Amino acid sequence: MDKVLFICVHNSGRSQMAEAFLKKHADEGEFEVESAGFEPTQINPLVVDVMQEVGTNLSDKKTQSVFDLFKAGKIYSFVMTVCGEGDDQCPVFPGMVHRLHLPFPNPAKVQGTKEEKLDKIRAIRDEIEKNILHFIEWRRSGMTTPLTLVGN
Description:
By secondary structure, the chain is α/β, with parallel strands linked by helices. It has a single domain, classed as Rossmann fold (3-Layer(aba) Sandwich), CATH 3.40.50. The chain has 4 helices and 4 strands, in the order βαβααββα. Strand 1 (2-8), helix 1 and strand 2 (31-37) form a beta-alpha-beta unit. Helix 1 (14-25) crosses helix 4 and helix 2 packs across helix 4 (114-140). The longest helix has 27 residues, at 114-140. The termini are far apart. The model has no long low-confidence stretch (mean pLDDT 88).
């Protein structure tokens, strides 16, 4: 079983969505998955809303620190950073792992009315889901080619 860690700055949106989608779409026992952040806060309530729309409840989910996982001696097969451009501190996780970078826009930085923000976060959610499905397919294929982002 591959152990996967998704990391971003606050563990409040992108990494939480990626974790949820990998759990949702992978076969049982195929992956063990977690997410964490450099400076964990709370899950973005708009992210909770858009994930609820696709049948995933994140309302009781907690954020966690990359440092706490490292101090606990956690080891992962894959560590994926999901920080996008403009993120000041995209964390790293030390150790012998397969590192992947799948940058996505930060839901906390979207602008507009509440409905405009929701629309933008839905687009981020859908992009993350598409790329998680691509990761699963890539992993099952034996990783013979580099993993790249799947565009819209």
